[in-house]
């Protein structure tokens, strides 16, 4: 599954993806250029952050949003989490800097490839990382809402893939200003109410 044909950047697919009762895909926006950019860059970053050989706030915030802000930030716990999910970037084109948005053409190409991505990974849930990414996803086949104390009426879209329906929502980009507690509630609500959203 790590070789998604036609894509330059390989996705991260955890060893236990889809084996815990629900298949969860974490959707990033893009990868930006750096001295170590390669087709395996995403896999290297997650492997290093899960093992503790690198520490990156972006990946720690994702982990805490899913697992909860009180979760122990040990390499063992991070490894368990990352091996339970799939991670891929929506845009496969390289972006020149972390502060730049992908081009309109790159987003258009990614939207054209969206259905193929869903059919390949067959997720039950997708959590998109960032409002800009959310705004550039295809509209889907339906929309509903989940509510938490901090995020009333937070949108959830439905999409169909080759074996079922996937529910998709977003969290803010897990960079400097990010509340893992707020987004943990949203993600939990997505999972708890997933069967009732149609």
Automatic annotation (TrEMBL):
This is Uracil-DNA glycosylase-like domain-containing protein. The lineage of its organism: Bacteria, Pseudomonadati, Pseudomonadota, Gammaproteobacteria, Vibrionales.
């Amino acid at each position: 599954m790590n070789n998604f044909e036609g894509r330059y950047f390989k996705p991260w697919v955890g060893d236990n993806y889809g084996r815990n009762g629900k298949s969860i895909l974490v959707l990033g926006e893009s990868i930006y250029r750096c001295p170590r950019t390669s087709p395996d860059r995403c896999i290297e970053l997650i492997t290093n952050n899960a093992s503790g050989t690198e520490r990156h706030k972006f990946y720690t915030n994702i982990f805490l949003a899913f697992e909860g802000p009180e979760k122990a930030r040990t390499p063992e716990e991070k490894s368990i989490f990352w091996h339970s999910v799939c991670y891929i970037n929506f845009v496969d084109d390289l972006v020149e800097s972390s502060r730049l948005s992908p081009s309109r053409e790159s987003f258009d190409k990614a939207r054209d490839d969206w259905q193929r991505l869903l059919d390949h990974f067959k997720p039950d849930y997708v959590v998109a990382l960032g409002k800009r990414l959310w705004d550039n996803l295809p509209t889907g086949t339906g929309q509903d809402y989940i509510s938490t104390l901090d995020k009333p009426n937070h949108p959830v879209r439905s999409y169909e893939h080759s074996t079922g329906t996937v529910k998709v929502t977003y969290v803010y980009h897990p960079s400097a200003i990010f509340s893992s507690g707020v987004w943990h509630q949203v993600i939990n609500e997505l999972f708890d109410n997933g069967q009732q959203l149609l």
